Amino acid sequence: MSAEGGPGAAIIAARPAVVAALAARFRDLDLAEDGFADAAELALRQFAHAPLPGNMAGWLHVAARRRVIDRLRRDGRLARIVEQGAPGMDAQDMAVTSLFDEQIHDERLRLIFICCHPAIAPDTRAALTLRIVCGVPTERIAAAFLMAVPAMYQRLTRARAKIREARVPFETPPPHLWGERLSAVLATLEIGYALAYQDAAASEPTADLGPEVLRLAMMLAELLPDDPEVLGLAALVQLAESRRAARVDATGCMVPLSEQDATHWNGALIASATRLMQRAANLGCSGPYQVMAAIHLTHARRRAEGWTDWDAILRLYDVLLAMRPGAVVAINRAIALGRVAGADAALAALDVLDAAALTTYRPWHAARAHLLAATGDLVGAQASYCAALSLNPPRAERLYLEAALQETSA
After folding, report:
1. Is 254 strand, coil or helix?
2. Tally of domains in the chain
3. What is the pLDDT of residue 132?
4. Does residue 95 surpass a pLDDT of 50?
5. Taking the C-alpha atoms of 347, 349, 353 and 359 in order, what is their torsion angle to the nearest 10 degrees?
6. Which residues of 224-254 are buried (b: 16+ CB within 10 A; e: fewer)?
7. What is the DSSP letter of 287?
8. How far apart are the C-alpha atoms of 94 and 65, rounded to whole Å?
9. Which one of 81, 237, 267, 313 has the fewest CB atoms closer than 10 angstroms to its CB?
10. Could you list the residue range(s) of the whole structural domain that residue 49 is in?
11. Considering the domain boundaries, does residue 34 fall inside one?
């Protein structure tokens, strides 16, 4: 990365991995985030008008580590942490910070398991992990969970306190304890990827999150090759990532899945996902991640067959809705229903949902706008497009929504 854009983007990109390594080393989430904030402030000053280091993550880790050690010395906690045996720390380590040689990405997966500790409330584990490990802003996490930002902030604060009170060990749990954390780990990766997927052009600060979730999902599939849901999630992410090159047009506008040029989809990722799904099916235990992957694979078959089997997709959504009832699945099912039974039927399916709870959920408004336009209700469609645009979509989606709004106003 050149220095022309300043250090800000490089700092944002490095944050999740560096915080993960610091937390694993010092066994304190707050200390890790404070140390990174100190290092980021130093980097903003030092590289404001100077070339960036070749390894910004490494530079930030060294700087943050030194700041944390200084803070521990001032607070009189250094000797206690060394005595407790924080990973890789000894007296010499305190005096001279070594070169950055952490296996950062492995530390990130470790911290995902730590944040998904059973001591933390089940409905909070994924949110906390997204904030700490993936660096997703609280506002975006709240939107993903259909919650108000203050409520999500309070939930995350309570989770941090619980980690301190329960003295959660900052070490990867032994394999026989993975099962009690696995559902939260999978939910974290799923929601993290969904947040990244909303940014079709990969132009947001979390642009690297999609490929990173893919890497982590594949690593998890290697660790747990006999868990069908782990294989299902890995396949799901591969199939979604396979469409990356076709998701925006030459102007940077988002292209809806049904309108994408399937010849630009990544055949190698589709083939790999197909193999993962076959392995999962052979294990004989179906679950929601396998069903979601099957939906994406049905879309992927358009690359070879030239058409989309919407009847099959609708049936799969019926199965998924029975396994995982909720507004997000119901909205996606309504879109598929519109392809099979028409826009009126799809709108009727949306109308039974709690509209008040979905006012801040952008896909709800976008789906309604599309369906209303299909029925000829252009005034209603315009209102829904405007509502979606008011919810701060990423640039590619905003361009798409603006173009759709323009079409309904013509």
Report:
1. strand
2. 2
3. 78
4. no
5. -30
6. beebbbbbbbbbbbbbbbbbbebbbeeeebb
7. -
8. 9
9. 267
10. 8-102
11. yes
In a domain, 91, yes or no: yes
Q: Is the model's pLDDT at 144 over the cut of 90?
A: no
Please tell me the distance from the alpha carbon of residue 189 to that of residue 195, in angstroms, as a whole number: 10
Q: Is the separation of the CB atoms in 61 and 22 below 8 Å? A: yes
Compute the CA torsion angle 40, 41, 42, 43 (nearest 10 deg).
50
**Residue with the larger pLDDT of the pair 164 and 302:** 302
Q: What is the pLDDT of residue 1?
A: 37
Q: Which of 46-50, 102-106, 309-313 has the lowest mean pLDDT?
A: 102-106
DSSP letter string over 156-187? Answer: HHHHHHHHHHTT--SSPPPGGGSHHHHHHHHH
Q: Are residues 63 and 110 in the same domain?
A: no
* Selection from 314, 328, 326, 324 nearest residue 366 by Cα: 328
- Helix, strand or coil for residue 284? coil
| Residue at 214 is within a domain | no
Residue that terminates a domain, selected from 50, 77, 102:
102
Q: Are residues 98 and 139 in the same domain?
A: no
pTM above 0.85, yes or no: no
User: Are residue 61 and residue 121 in the same domain, yes or no?
Assistant: no
User: Residue 186's pLDDT is what?
Assistant: 93
Residues 13 and 41 in one domain: yes
- pLDDT, one tens digit per residue, over 363-385 is 999 999 999 999 999 999 999 99
Orientation angle between helical segments 56-75 and 29-46, nearest 10 degrees: 120
